[in-house]
Write a structure and sequence with these properties.
iron; heme binding; alpha+beta; 8 strands; membrane; 8% strand
Length: 455
C-alpha cells in the first residue's frame, strides 16, 4: 500500500521490487478501501497515456479545498487543465527556449565560479549545488526575478524551495493523502505547500506581473513563462471565467516545484555516476571538446548541445536510473477494459510503474549498471517504447521536458569541460546510495560528495 510505503520506505524502491516480484503486466493493490492498479506493461501504459487518453484525462492527485495554489497544472482536471496547458505549451517550443541562452550561460558560468572559489572542493554537496542551480534557472523563468543561489547557495527563493523538500512525518502523511487519498486531503484540508511559501510567491507574482503589464504591448506574444501566466488572466481558452491570482501563481509554483528538485537531483546523480565510471566521463569530455573546437565562438549553445549524441545518452541513462517521479497516476473516467481478463470500473486509480519498467531486466539488461551506450541509435529498439518514461508520455506528459533537458545539458557540459570528477574515500558507490523514505521523489536521503579536479 502506497501510504505505508511512503512513510517507511521509498515508493520508487517499492515499485522496482513490485515488477520484479510479480512479473505481471498489472498488479492490483488496495489504497485502504479503494482498489487501484499498478501498470507494469509498456503496451497497457501506451493505451492509458496515449491511445485511450480520453478515458484517462485526469490525474488522481488532488489538493484539499482552500489550498490557494493547489489548483495547478499537476492537479487540475479537465476542462481547466487542457485550457491552461494549451496556453502554456507555446512557451516551451524550441524557438522560445533558445531565448533563454543567456540565462543558462550565466548560471552555468556561476557554477564553475562557485567551485573554483571553494577552497576544499571535497566539502561541496553535489546535490545542494545542483539544486541551487536549477532553482535559479527555473525560478527566473517562472517569476522573472534575478536569483543568486548558484553562486552563493543563498537566495530568498532558494530558502523556500529548501522548505519544499523538508519532509517530516506529518508532511509525509499530508502529501501521501494529497497524492493517494483525496478524501482524506479534503477532510483535513491538507495543503501542498506551507502558507508562508504561498504568500511569498504570491507577493512576487503580483509585484512583477504589475511591472510586466505596464511594460508589455497589448496583444503581443508572451516572451516567457511569466508573460504566458499573465495572459491567462486575459483569455482562459473559452472557459468564460477569469482565473484568480491564486490559480495563476499555482502554475508558476508548480513549475518551480516540479522542475528544480527533479532536474537538480538528476544532474547530481549524473555527476556522481561519471565519477565512478571514468571511461564514460572521458568519452563525454572528448565529444564536448571536439564540438567546442568546431564552434565559431568556441562556445556550445543550446542547439549544438541538443545534437551531441553521447551527451544525450548520458543524460538519458541518468534519468533511466534516477527518474525523480517514478510513476504516473491517472483515474479511469469510464469503465475500461484493460485486457480480456480485467475490466476496471470508472473511478479506479491507475499508476504507470515507470521506474519499475526502467529497472526491469527484460527491458534493460543489467539495470543497476550505468551504461549510456544502451541509448545509442544502434542499440535502441522499437520494443523499448513506453519502457522509458522519465517525462511521461501523451498529452499529459511533462510540459517542461525541453526546459529540463536544456538545463541538464548546459550544466553537465560546462562541468565536464572544466572538471574531472573523482569518487572520495568513504562515500557510497551509486548502488549504495540511500534513497529518501519520507518524500515522494526518488532522491538521495543524504548529501553526496565528490572531488573536483580542474582540467
Amino acid at each position: 500500500m502506497f501510504l505505508a510505503t511512503g512513510l517507511f520506505r521509498s515508493i520508487g524502491i517499492w515499485l522496482i521490487e513490485t515488477i520484479r516480484h510479480f512479473k505481471s503486466p498489472y498488479v492490483g493493490i488496495w489504497l485502504f478501501w479503494r482498489p487501484a492498479l499498478i501498470i507494469n506493461s509498456p503496451e497497457i501504459a501506451r493505451n492509458v497515456l496515449v491511445k485511450d487518453f480520453g478515458s484517462f484525462r485526469n490525474r488522481f492527485v488532488a489538493a484539499g479545498p482552500g489550498d490557494p495554489i493547489g489548483l495547478n497544472l499537476l492537479t487540475a482536471d479537465d476542462p481547466l487543465w487542457s485550457s491552461i496547458r494549451r496556453r502554456l505549451t507555446s512557451i516551451f517550443t524550441a524557438s522560445k527556449l533558445r531565448a533563454l541562452q543567456h540565462l543558462f550561460d550565466t548560471k552555468t558560468s556561476e557554477l564553475i565560479q562557485r567551485i573554483d572559489n571553494t577552497e576544499d572542493k571535497t566539502k561541496i554537496s553535489v546535490r545542494m549545488m545542483c539544486t541551487d542551480y536549477t532553482t535559479d534557472v527555473v525560478g527566473t523563468a517562472s517569476f522573472g526575478v534575478k536569483t543568486n543561489a548558484t553562486l552563493t547557495g543563498e537566495d530568498p527563493i532558494r530558502t523556500i524551495t529548501k522548505s519544499f523538500m523538508d519532509f517530516d512525518l506529518l508532511r509525509g502523511i499530508s502529501w501521501s493523502a494529497i497524492f493517494f487519498f483525496p478524501e482524506v486531503a479534503e477532510f483535513f484540508r491538507f495543503k501542498m505547500f506551507p502558507k508562508k511559501s504561498t504568500d511569498f510567491f504570491k507577493r512576487i507574482y503580483l509585484t512583477v506581473s504589475k511591472q510586466r503589464q505596464q511594460q508589455n504591448v497589448p496583444g503581443s506574444a508572451p516572451k516567457d513563462l511569466l508573460d504566458a501566466l499573465i495572459s491567462l488572466k486575459e483569455n482562459v481558452g473559452g472557459l468564460n471565467e477569469e482565473l484568480s491570482d491564486d490559480t495563476i501563481v499555482a502554475q508558476a509554483v508548480a513549475f518551480l516545484f516540479a522542475g528544480y528538485e527533479t532536474s537538480g537531483s538528476s544532474l547530481a546523480f549524473a555527476l556522481y555516476e561519471l565519477a565512478f565510471y571514468p571511461e564514460i566521463q572521458e568519452k563525454l569530455y572528448a565529444e564536448l571538446v571536439e564540438a567546442k573546437d568546431k564552434c565559431a565562438n568556441n562556445s556550445l549553445d543550446i542547439n549544438t548541445l541538443a545534437d551531441l549524441q553521447y551527451l544525450n545518452c548520458v543524460i538519458k541513462e541518468a534519468l533511466r536510473k534516477y527518474s525523480p517521479m517514478g510513476w504516473m497516476d491517472r483515474v479511469a473516467l469510464v469503465d475500461y477494459k484493460i485486457d480480456d481478463k480485467l475490466t476496471i470500473p470508472a473511478g479506479t486509480p491507475l499508476y504507470v510503474n515507470a521506474i519499475g519498467m526502467q529497472y526491469y531486466e527484460e527491458f534493460y539488461p543489467e539495470p543497476e549498471k550505468f551504461d549510456p551506450d544502451r541509448f545509442l541509435p544502434e542499440n535502441e529498439k522499437e520494443s523499448m517504447q513506453f519502457t522509458y518514461l522519465p517525462f511521461g508520455e501523451g498529452p499529459r506528459n511533462c510540459i517542461g521536458k525541453r526546459f529540463a533537458q536544456i538545463s541538464l545539458r548546459s550544466a553537465l557540459a560546462k562541468l565536464v569541460l572544466n572538471y574531472e570528477f573523482r569518487p572520495l574515500p568513504g562515500q557510497p558507490t551509486p548502488s549504495e546510495i540511500d534513497i529518501d523514505k519520507l518524500g515522494l521523489f526518488y532522491v538521495p536521503s543524504h548529501h553526496l560528495y565528490l572531488d573536483f579536479i580542474r582540467r
